Please model this.
Amino acid sequence: MRLDDILYSQGFGTRRVCAGLIQQGLVSVAGQGDLEPATDLDTDALTFTVQGRSWPYQASAYLMLHKPAGTECSQKPSTYPSIYTLLPAPLRQRPQKGAVQGVQAVGRLDQDTTGLLLLTDDGKFIHRMSSPRHHVPKVYEVTTRHPLDDAQVSRLLAGVVLDDDPRPVKAAACEAVDAHHLRLTLTEGKYHQVKRMLAAVGNRVEGLHRSQIGRLVLPADLAPGQWCWLTPDDLAKLTP
Model:
């Protein structure tokens, strides 16, 4: 694959911009900087450097972000900064067939919710992960305003009725870690679901953090606002 096409596919600008970066000596591969736009490279396990920053070639981008509070999962945020401002420009500019370029969030978290958020430019992956038929469990750490009791946990496991659906919605798993800390596992994705479920049992969410999707756990060393690539092993943990 031509080097300028590689840079273009990874979001480093138009083909003309990518060619210019190469011709100016701002791109290197394995320490070699005297390259041409037409240089042909094997993309398998390829890592290159652009303006001093190392970058792995990814045919499709899959990453996780530790979403901080006070950010919106939107390209056009209304009140708070967008999560996309936390990502480097190439991830926001990866060329796509549609009008929206770059990686997109797989689902959304409210502006005050923190934790594990997946992003990708693979439309089929987004559809599969978002499909109700896929039933990928998501684990939330919930801080409650009022002390938890066994009756609330039992009702969440048995199912509660929300105002937009007559069918009961129940937790796949539910554990009171302490008086104000609930660990809740859901396999559905309704609007404000955790907050509405807690309200339905007479409590209120004071803090909400998503710690796990499938068997993929948010790394303890990934600080709020930081992101990392997903490995093949990570992706396998998202398959039921």
Summary: The chain has a mean pLDDT of 94.
